[in-house]
Amino acid sequence: MRFGTREQNCPFFIKKYRKTIKRSDSTMYDIIIIGAGVTGCSVARYLSRYQAKVCVVERADDVCCGTSKANSAIVHAGYDAAHGSLMAKMNVKGSQMMPALAKELDFPFQQNGSLVVCMHEDDMLYLKELYENGIKNGVKGLEIVGKERMRELEPNVSDDAVAALWAPTAGIVCPFTLTIALAENANTNGVDFKFNTEVTAVVRNGDHWTVQTNQGALDTNYVVNAAGLYADVFHNMVSAKKIHITPRRGDYFILDHATDGFVKHTVFQLPGKYGKGVLVAPTVHGNTIVGPTAVDIEDKEGTNTTLAGLDEVTAKADIAIQNIPLRQTITSFAGLRAHEDHHEFIIGEAEDAPHFIDCAGIESPGLSSSPAIGMTVADLLRDKMHLQPNPKFNGVRKGIIDPKTLSLQERAELIQKDPAYGQIVCRCESVTEGQILDAIHRPLGAKSIDGVKFRTRAGMGRCQAGFCTPRVIEILARELGVGQNEITKNGGASKLIVGNTKDRA
């Protein structure tokens, strides 16, 4: 693998664009996917099963840097989406695909089940409607449970709760490693990835599309629009039938590992106008997540937490679950959902823009739906383009070895073989130098502090990278062959070191 110097990650903003671009100045692909979030990477992974020249373009310096990285990390069972909707179909299918996909691509997933808690007898009719909707959607194992069974499942459920909808097929997943696994597998099967590549225009240029970027022009026969919050911008560039996406911000708390086991299942409140309400859930890494809010904003980059938002989470969190240990909070964050005005996924070829495939409005349950969306779009393109199977396709990927998951004998043998796995870098999460080296040198490897964090969890613990950051910078600089002052937090201008000690002004 060849490593080079870092390129500046320009802010994403669509500006004036040229109407025509000379084909001779660009590179030709069969398919270009805009966006390396979980949807774009899933499409790429399933397309890699076929013989096609595919490229994913991403404005950030890594995958999973937008909507996909900041959410509830829930694999929804599929009882909530309206029956007959594309959202319901993709949710149920994606949820059913997730266990097998997790084994194939070696990412953390637990089918821990979920409860939707009903707090008042007057709301039982709505709980039953949710159950009936889930049955129509094809969700398996749904059951309305009473107080006794509910408290067997979750002892900390509120004393005022009267019943709950139990969905055993629901699960939890790591959004980072899911997206990274999809991308790595796509890349090893021949898909190109271009990072720090901001798309500024999509233009019909004769018999093909030209995708104009800050790194030059790329020609393609088909475009897949998986741009998350900006999917409406690209769709509206090429189609007279406009769509509109609103950023919907959600604030969250993450609690320390000390709260592991406080809840064993994902606990929802009955859904309201703006979604599923504040949830309390375990994570696959042993933390507890609490949130989100649902606030519509205008800024597509507005991922800042707010005092009002966090106060709202605090006020609503203990409605369904009591005694939540919020004093064990180690961090808070906000994510944005790509809410389309009609609250429906838009998947398919734009009616008045041939060969332009939308994956737009992919809000919750988008993470749950991502495998199904990827397969659906790949199959659509297979049929339209008459793609042939890729004889070299390998659908299995091995993740980064975590010594904590090994027996003492296996761990000793690993350290004997490679002493770097005996060097702890992140004390909070017990991440070793060996894991960080693997993260850097594997396909689409880490190039920034966040890149290491998302692949290994170095910096995600109680001290929130307070102790391990200097050592992570040292390892990145050494392995990438650059100065420590070139290492960034997450690409672009996010450098942490701005000069040497005793430098004169």
Describe the structure.
The protein is an alpha+beta fold and 505 residues long. It folds into 3 domains: 6-109 and 173-244 and 341-397, 3-Layer(bba) Sandwich (FAD/NAD(P)-binding domain); 114-168 and 252-291 and 304-325, D-Amino Acid Oxidase, subunit A, domain 2 (D-Amino Acid Oxidase, Chain A, domain 2, 2-Layer Sandwich); 403-486, Orthogonal Bundle (Arc Repressor Mutant, subunit A), CATH 1.10.10. It has 12 helices and 22 strands. Strands 1, 2, 9, 10, 11, 12, 19 and 20 form an 8-stranded mixed β-sheet that branches.
Care to give the gist of this entry?
With 505 residues, the protein is of the alpha+beta class. Helices cover 28% and strands 22% of the residues.
Any key phrases for this structure?
505 residues, alpha+beta, FAD/NAD(P)-binding domain, D-Amino Acid Oxidase, Chain A, domain 2, Arc Repressor Mutant, subunit A, 3 domains, eight-stranded mixed beta sheet, five-stranded antiparallel beta sheet, 22 strands, disordered N terminus, BFD-like_2Fe2S-bd_dom, BFD-like_2Fe2S-bd_dom_sf, FAD-dep_OxRdtase
List the helices and strands and how they pair.
Elements: E1 27-34, H1 38-47, E2 54-57, E3 74-75, H2 86-105, E4 109-110, E5 114-118, H3 124-137, E6 143-145, H4 147-153, E7 163-167, E8 171-173, H5 175-188, E9 192-194, E10 199-205, E11 208-213, E12 216-225, H6 231-238, E13 245-255, E14 266-269, E15 279-282, E16 288-291, E17 295-296, H7 307-317, E18 329-340, E19 346-349, E20 356-360, H8 366-385, H9 408-417, E21 424-426, E22 431-432, H10 433-441, H11 449-456, H12 469-480
Helix pairs in contact: 1-5, 1-8, 2-8, 10-11, 10-12
Organism: Caproicibacterium lactatifermentans
Domain BFD-like [2Fe-2S]-binding: 424-478
Pfam families: DAO, Fer2_BFD
